[in-house]
Amino acid sequence: MAERSFKKEVEALRRGAGEELRCEGILGVTKALLQSGVAYVGGYQGAPISHLMDVLGDAQDILEELDVHFESSGSEATAAAMLAASVNYPLRGAVTWKSTAGTNVASDALANLASSGVTGGALVIVGEDYGEGSSIMQERSHAFAMKSQIWLLDPRPNLPMITDMVETGFDLSEASNTPVMLELRIRACHLHGSFVAKDNRRPKMTVRQAKASPTRDTSRVVLPPFNFLHEKEKIEARLPAAIQFIKERQLNEFFDGDVGDIGLIMQGGLYNTVIRALNVLGLADSFGNCRLPIYVMNVTYPYIDEEILRFCADKKAVLMIEEGQPEYIEQAISHILRRAELPTKLYGKDILPIYGEYQGDVIKTAMEKFIVTVAPSVLEGLSQSAAQKKTSGETQVLNIYEPAVETKSVESIAVTLLEGEIPPRPAGFCVGCPERPIFSAVKQVQQAIGDIHMSCDIGCHLFSILPPFDLGNTTMGYGLGAAGGSAFNVPSERRNISVMGDGGFWHNGLTSSISNAVFNQSDDVVMIVDNNYSAATGGQDIMSSRVELDNRSTQHSIEKAVKGVGVTWVRQVDTYDVATMKKTLHEAMTSPQPGPKVIIAQNECMLNKQRREKPLVRDKIKSGKRLVRERFFVDADTCTGDHACIRLSGCPSLTVKENPNPLKSDPVAWVDNECVGCGLCGENAHTAVLCPSFARTDIIFNPTRRDRFIGGIRQAVIGFLQNRIDRRLEKYAL
Amino acid sequence: MFESREQPVKIAISAMGGQGGGVLASWIRDLAEAQGYLAQSTSVPGVAQRTGATVYYLEIFPGAETERVGRKPVLGMTPIIGDVDILIAAELVEAGRAVQKGLVTPDKTTLITTTHRAYTVAEKQHLGDGLSDSTKILDGIRQVAKRCVAFDMEKLANEHDSVISSALFGALAGAEVLPFGKADYEQAIRAGGVAVETNLAAFNAAYHLAGQGGLEPAVPEKSDRLSVPEAARTRTGKMLLDRVLTEFPPSCQGMICEGMAQLIDYQDFRYAELYLERLRSLVAQEASEDHELTREVARYLALWMAFPDTIRVADQKTRSSRFQKIRAEVRAMDEQLVYPVEYMHPRIEEFCDLLPRRLGAFVLRSKRLRRFLSVFFTKGRKIKTATISGYCLLYLIASLRFMRRASYRYAVENSAIEVWLERIHSQAGKNPSLALGLAETACLIKGYGATRDRGRQRYEAIMAALAESRTRPTREDVRRLWEAALVGEEGREFALALAEFSSDASLKDSLEDSSEDSLEGKGADPRV
Predict the structure, then answer these.
(1) Could A699 and B106 be called an inter-chain contact, meaning their C-beta atoms sit closer than 8 Å?
(2) For B388-429, what is each residue's pLDDT tens digit?
(3) What is A19-199+215-248's CATH topology?
(4) Is A396–B178 a contact, with Cβ atoms under 8 angstroms apart?
(5) Is B203 exposed, middle or buried (0-12, 13-18, 19+ CB in 10 A)?
(6) What is the pLDDT of residue B224?
(7) ipTM > 0.90 for the complex
(8) Nearest-CA neighbor of A693 among A622, A624, A618, A641?
(9) Chain A residues 44-73 with CB within 8 Å of chain B
(10) Domain ranges, ordered by start, for chain A
(11) B220 at the A interface (CB within 8 A)?
């Protein structure tokens, strides 16, 4: 079960022509796929398109009604390869993944697909995980489009445009026999807006029909001599067809402005941010009317030379606003202008930052720089009008509080008062996460035997690199944990440890990491974190999920899989059992048995578990049934304020508060009410011999008559003794 | 060429992942849409958000203007510095972070923030007090905001069994910055359909507070002046209290009374008398009017004398007040039963602590005995204090108080205390600044087991470094050392500080020896 359910939202997918849909970008894209007559869909989850997979999963019924086949692909490579169905048949297919991480994985299949060319429209929806909130290396999908000759769409980020581009993308793909990528930036994927729906369309040909009457065309296979023909075809047939289509359908947009001799060229996805920045500068209104002419590239590859030349022809200077590096488009435009011997001066990364996300401020600053450089008169008198605008906006703002203190400039406040007071808050393990105890154990083992080289993977477990654990050296990709440690496969005093999640394991890890370690007779330790889901991407089910699903086969054992590829030393340990985990780790580090030592650390993702159990617990309590809830508690009086417990845990629920003892200033540990009673605090207190401040409290809801009877007797005896203590305390007081 | 002068209202929500910022954003969106506005919201999802800092962004635009122009406006995706109308923060440091980014500006931004803290790992993992200063943050953000509505919305939400989003939504309504009525807001919560009643309760409470200005007074600075009890509760207590009032200057009396009270609670009146004796000889020596040295020694001496041995832990865990505290903290209802399960891990050391002095020392020295006895102390124990057997066990241990003075642990701690006091005495007249430093270094002596051993080692290392120093170290010099000792468990920062101190000391030495003409020698190899 995924982190977020879209069961309610997907009903919107049934809406017909003319109805307005208010929804998130992701749901809009799904609706657009159905409106395009897509025949099959696949993909691999990962932010920012995880929800697209979740929506599709929850829309299974609707997909079946329309004869659309949907698969949760094993990896992005699988998803890309799935598009092979569009090579021979006029089947429209769409796949999705996180980019560039997923595009890297998929690039083998993508390159072959692009070489073969397609008959039916093939659309790849990539969620560009670049900039704010990104958890991967900062690269561009643009390079993949260029190298494999795949068309790249980067539409203006509003729902009507995005949904329209999905449908147009299929048309473009079919018109040019080329796969098309639709790039959506993070915030665009989760942009909530509205658009007017069209009717859903059943695919012209369904996958079932294609399968029933197979056709083949040898020239579509990537093998000599056809591979050479494919390259020729790309340049001589497909590219011109695409250019013609883009021009005819006017996919790129021209916006006029009264300052005619300078202009802006931008990727479509940046349009709203640019307009907002110009709006703040007083150069555009809220409806996009802008004083500077604009050429919006909703198709960022291929480039339409003719359009670019037309836009630049009467201008003395243009600014190319292109996010990410290298600046492929700017280089191309420079080349196009040079060829045409046009004197228009081209600005771009000389004014804008070379790298990093282009948020509003970045663009605003650059825009000022550009205008001051090429046409300073445009900005004259604007500061005043901008000020007017601000006051008019203020009319709806009432005053309650005016600070009595003198208002200082923003910078001075930030520098003086907040300096050093705003600690970083990176993402981390959730409350009660079953992965945290693993690293508590590793940290304790490391304290005992010395520093360990640790090769990490992709997934929540990568948070181990952060405080308080500070464990892990590198991460090389999904399922590549042990592969990333393979060079260290030499005899040494201390083995190294690699970590891999269950998601990574099934994605790629079984072959690239485990089989490789077996084959090369590695002696090192591999930890597989099995939490029942692909938790980092939003809790999607995978091969080893414990749940039984109608349309997926689950419950496949990781242990059997690794044994199947020849691992002989395998242990499965409950992650919360720190003592056993420590013992097992010690054993794995020292065992004389040859071959990789695989430890499967098993327990369920707490987010998913809570989502499932909380309502059940609530119902049980409501209906009067007996229930024991566990949570932890720290004695403030005995806590020393050293926080060793926190350094072994980092649980958001294990936090600090003011010391109740007026003589002490160190804050004491305490457990807030978010505690789910996972038990790690107690395990750590025991295994690391911390301090006697930790107690678990078992709270009995709806106690039975027997509970109350025993409780009464206990209370009588304990109460008697406590009275004695109280009497002594009365005697011994100041 | 412009068609409209209308601007969207720009709202940013600065929160932590998992706090429900998305719910708040959707309420605002629903509210605006229901009132005929166009609303667009964006967020950053995914693993990058798990418990980390994140920003939600909304723009809302009047529908009437859209109809007049006949087109949809172009709405922004991210907040721009100096262009945010309303900044809502779901945690105080996140408000500070938004201010640091420049999202709050004096000419424009209404800041609606809770004042509660969710501490970051960086703050929590410190070996002492590593927390950011909330007062400073609140001061800073108030000064940059055009208006500021700030109070503890987390507490308020908890009081109504709701979540912080409801309180923030209520504060937004109460601040009346958006052109919507209170009922419109409530409708958005109702339309959400989840926990409507409790959410509305928290919403209303926050609405009223915000309407009244919603500014919380800053937390007062923690003072080192504690108050003196008005009257003693016991006869012996009165005698002691009178002694404090006659023999000690007013600036120390509060601290000493608190120390005394804790030591009576810990042991008995005689023990508190010992405490007074120890302080009396010091106060006579102190020349300063403020008597800061006596006050600080009073603080740390009381803490050290009340060292937490097994007897103390058992004592604290068996009190009725503790059982009440637990019930309150876990929010147990009257009819519910609560059973604490204590996680204890006594080691052979703790066992020997309780033995008579000579016997304890003997066992700890004898390898054989240690090994034999260790068998009984390998595992942690879970003791149910609310069952008869578990309670009686701890009750018995607590009652060993009568033989504490004869115990091995008492002997160890007592002699260390005496050495510490002796050191302070020897400096109190000569170098009062250093004496204060020596007194404060006792803050490293705390806790149990490994924590206490580590603190004690670092304490001794500082004492040794000070003893070796031939210069005149000041309180600041010593403070730098013990502060470094509290930074990391591995002690890298501490080793560095010690090395720096030693080289500084010898450098100062050599400078004092040579002529005072220049400071060029600074930074040079101190060995030269």
Answers:
(1) no
(2) 999 999 999 999 999 999 999 999 999 999 999 999 999 999
(3) Rossmann fold (3.40.50)
(4) yes
(5) buried
(6) 60
(7) yes
(8) A641
(9) 46-48, 50-51
(10) 19-199+215-248, 253-390, 436-543+556-608, 620-722
(11) no
